[in-house]
Sequence to fold (266 residues):
Amino acid sequence: MMALTMILLVPFASAGLLDSLSPDERQVAICQQVAAPAEENHDYARAAGVWEACLAESRRTGQSAVADMLQDKLAIIQARAKAAAWRTTDANRYALAVLSVAADQRSTFYPGTDIPDVFRAWMQTESGKARLEPARTVTLVWEGLAPAQKGEADHTAELFRRHVADLGLKWADAGHPDVDVIVYATFTVVPVDAVLLGTAATLPRMEAKFEATRVRFRTLDETTEGFRVAAVAEEAEPSEAREQALRAACERAAGRLLKQVLRAIL
Fold:
C-alpha cells in the first residue's frame, strides 16, 4: 500500500491533452499506469489488487469524487479475472460475463480500454454480431447548428464517426434509411482560463463539449436520455488545442454511446 501511495502522490504529466480530469481523477491515471503491465499480460488478479489499493487510498484521502468510478473499474477487472478461463476458449461467454457487469454500472467512464477491447473481440463472434444487430448502425444529427458552424460540425462528425467505427459499430450518414441508433447532439469549443483549472499554464487551452440531447434506438423503438462529455487540451497554437480537445471529446462521446448500446442490448 505504501508503494502505491507514494506513486499516487506523483503529479500526472499529460502531454498536451488534459481531458476534463479533475485533480482526483488525475491520480487515477497514475493507478492506471501502475496496473497497465498486469492488464497487458492478462494477469487480472494482480491488476485487481492494484485497483483495490487505489480505491482504498482514494477513500482514505477523501477522494470521494472518483471512489464510485474506481469501485466500478475494480468490478470490471474482477469480472475479467473470474472469467479468465473463457478468454481464449469461449469469447462470447467471456464477453457477456464482463460486458453485463459494465452495462449495469452507473459509471460512464473507465480508466483504460477494458470495455472497448472486450466489445471489439465480441463483435468478431457470430453470437456477438447477432446480439448487436438491432443496434449496430449509428448516425449523428446535429441540433441547433448555426450556419457558421457547418464546416467544424462536419469535421467533428467525422471525428466522432472514426471513434464509433473504432468500436466495431457501423456508421451511416444522417438521413440514411437503414439506421439503428440516432444520436441527436450539439457541440461547442471555447477557450479556457488556466485560473479556472487551478493551474499556471502559459499555452493556449481549449475546451470541447459534446452533448447528446437524446439517443434514439430506432430498431428497438426506444429513446434514452442523452449525455454530456468534455475535454480540455493545451497546445502551442490555439488551433491545435482546439483540434486535440475536439478529438478527445469525440472519443469520450463514442465511449459513452457504447455504454448506452450495451444497456440496450444486454
